[in-house]
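writing this on my phone so excuse typos. first protein, seq and then structure
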Amino acid sequence: MLLNKVLSVLVIITALAACSSNGRYELDNDKAPASAPDVTKVEDAHPKYEPYSRGGNKSTYTVLGKSYNVMSTGEGYAEKGIASWYGAKFHGHLTSNGETYDMYSMSAAHKTLPLPSYVKVTNLKNDKTVIVRVNDRGPFHEDRIIDLSYAAAHRLDMLKTGTANVSLEVIYIADPESAALAELKGTKQHFIQVVASSSKQRIESLATSLEQKYQVKTRVKTGDNLYRLQLGPISQSTIANKLTEKLKKEGYPSSYLLTE
């Protein structure tokens, strides 16, 4: 009985030691899969709008004694640096986003981008590119900016070297509802440049005619001895674009859109 208890305690101590030395974010003993399937035909991640997850986007978090501030949005993000990849050690385990890590999918880990984000990654040595879906945190090394899945690293031809100099560019997809609301608010003013003439009388006569026909106000801008007739303002870009195309088909092929 005593021997069994001693053995049990030793097993628990060994397990705890393993956990502390090989934590969630330490890459020791990570490796490529022993018998990987053919990943050459794995498609890029398909960018689409996804709300940022609650669990994976704490504003601040700490790993290995260092704190990181998560971005509120990935819009406009671009960076160059060193990429690494992670594989079999994490395969099947939960990501920071609460999903299951699949090293054969086009996914990645980033320290501060909101989760999930879609990123175009380019290997600067060979110009090979891949689009990945960022759903995890890492890599927690000072000189690395992204950790790629096995499949993504394979596509970029960086498995043998382990790292690669890359450029990152977020593919940002806006919330369709927010975009629709912004369109309805019409925060920008659009004008359609219809025609220019040196005859003020001709422009004024045409302005009256177009206002009646299209039920849109007009204005005349002068410069370089020309009078430029413009329809507007129009707050909604969709309507402005449609009217521009209509004008082109109805005798004003040089019409184009201006935004203020």
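second protein below, same order as before
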Amino acid sequence: MEGMTKDKVEETRELEWALIPPREVSQVDGIVLEKNICNTWDKVWNFQAKPDDLLIASYPKAGTTWTQEIVDLIQNNGDIENSRRAPIQLRQPFLEWFRRVTPGIDQANAMSSPRTLKTHLPVQLLPPSFWEKNCKIIYVARNAKDNMVSYYYFQKMNKALPEPGSWDEYFETFMSGKVMWGSWFDHVKGWWKKKDSHPILYLFYEEMMKDPKRVIRKVMEFLGKNLKEEVLDKIVYNTSFDVMKKNPMTNYINDPEMNHNLSPFMRKGVIGDWKNQFTEAQNKRFNEEYEKHMADTSLSFCMEL
């Protein structure tokens, strides 16, 4: 697009995005996934993890990219230039995702150790080799209301995901657990329970927002690193929402399947934005369903500041 005006570039991107056919979905054990993932599920399920693999797991739009960048900077001792060596999706392959160029599984298999990988799979669909090799896992969870709103806008701008329909329609889809990667309730509870028997660091998006340095230190200790305070401060700054939103290595600005004019990949990054989206009736119904679904767990979330 060299020689084109900014407006012309945007117009061309809009047209290209509009021509991309939406991806189809299917299911694995009742969990909605992109059809290519389902068609190659044996390859995903039989993936061979290594003992020194680190896995970053989450429900979609729960702070995954944020956690990935924190981890990468800790692993590289706060070296900012090194963390900008490539887009985050190339540095840390999305395990089950079927990219148009290279599937995440193939990316991971081509990487030398130690590897850091990403997944949105619910705990029951994670390849067994991760448990067998006792790999360290970092899981990040976000309160369901904000997570739902963020996921809705993400589906609107991302052709790799199903069209979400109206907000009212999406609310019903989310509540029934028929979104990609399944029910939020089952996802966060499943991983919470698994941490009792496996080396899993369970993080909360809201804690990361309130006290990022404390959480970054927690991740550092989990990874067995010991960085100086000034390095931690540097990581806090470079993983702040405003900095990451402008960083082309983390903001997916060049992903052809994402229309950032509809909604940026990194949209607001706040706690309590659900109040701008939920109707009073939806909030009442959600609270009632939430109490039922979460009655059997000690897991609790902060819904607002």
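The chain has a mean pLDDT of 88. thats all i got for now
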